[in-house]
């Protein structure tokens, strides 16, 4: 019997489509789901019979275990509680999106231990687990509605290519599927990039939508300093931190990226492109850390999402950041080690700026020590 095919765009109520997919998965059926990369075959990961059915549908050789489709980085930590800062960083920056992370399968503390023993060979036979958060709205809705975990693998055509349309899923798998959600051609039309993360080491297992250089950039630790206009305090802090970290790591400032570190600054009310104030520029030249080419930028969703550590100058800046982005609280730390505000020197003379810089340098030393010690920057 051929599968039921539902055109998502033409559905009267997408919620009904989601409920049908959830019901089919809960009943142990195979469902073809759209993702931004290729179409995937999904089943209930807690159902060994469904997993066996999916392996049979995929056909030999079944060399790679199935991934778990998850909603977010927070859910990933439930399956691999000790996955480490680099995996966490990649998940925060790449998900939902076309990257599959292969991490340690924690069979003692992770949720994977709650799955039937018969499910383990299909998901983590070698002690690692693939995790994928697809960037497709209807598939995300299905994952949110289903109580249990979902196993996911790409739908392959007879010639080995991945299916990128619902029609290709039906052509390739036919009555092995119970339901196909047709959300049009996949956006990218090529597989996800697969990255194995073990501690502070990464290995590209498959280059897909996202290339090696982008993955390398995504693994860098990013520190962002925040003030109001991004012309005085935060540019000074950025320059001082870059200089100090480069000294500690024994590299030129412009090679910090090669050591996995990035430093930036932004303002809550910045005028994009504005130069550093004359006093700021003068002090930084005195320190041998010229910022004549500085261009102010506004704090953005993208910058905040990617940052590992956000360092505001005042408690007011901190409150403003957390009000807009409540989930960033654990990644926000005031510059001053005892929580004092770093007052804005704007409008003051050069000596006011010197006093401000002295406070900034004190805070930078504190945070640099923490970064190198706690986040394990190699080579320090």
Structure characterization notes:
This protein has 380 residues and is α/β, with parallel strands linked by helices. The protein folds into 2 domains: 4-217, DHBP synthase; 220-374, Response regulator (Rossmann fold). 36% of the residues lie in helices and 17% in strands. The protein contains 13 helices and 13 strands. It has helices at residues 14-26, 48-58, 73-79, 84-94, 120-123, 137-145, 166-173, 212-218, 233-249, 278-286, 301-306, 315-324, 350-374; strands at 4-7, 31-33, 40-44, 67-69, 99-104, 128-132, 150-154, 179-182, 193-198, 201-206, 221-227, 261-267, 309-312. A 10-stranded mixed β-sheet has the order 1-8-2-3-7-4-6-5-9-10, with helices on both faces. The protein has a 3-stranded parallel β-sheet with strand order 12-11-13. The termini are far apart. GO terms for molecular function: ATP binding; double-stranded RNA binding; L-threonylcarbamoyladenylate synthase; protein tyrosine phosphatase activity; tRNA binding. Residues 15-210 form the YrdC-like domain. InterPro entries: DHBP_synth_RibB-like_a/b_dom, Ptyr_pPase, Ptyr_pPase_sf, Sua5-like_dom, TC-AMP_synthase_SUA5, Tyr_phospatase_low_mol_wt. One of its GO terms (cellular component) is cytoplasm. It comes from Botrimarina hoheduenensis.
